[in-house]
Hints:
The protein is 80% helix and 0% strand.
Amino acid sequence: MDYVSALLPPVVMAAFFIGLVVTIVKSQGGPNKAKEDALVDATLARAEAARQADGPSAS
């Protein structure tokens, strides 16, 4: 019976990890992907514009 109590925590952790990975994979894409991509693109463009507005860097 000791082997059951020794194996139970890793099995439970593995099951939760597999569930987490499945949830992450399923949440990729979908109807909100275009909106999320547009938000990231707008943020990157805003950061690039702010960097260019500061003038040339001294690198």
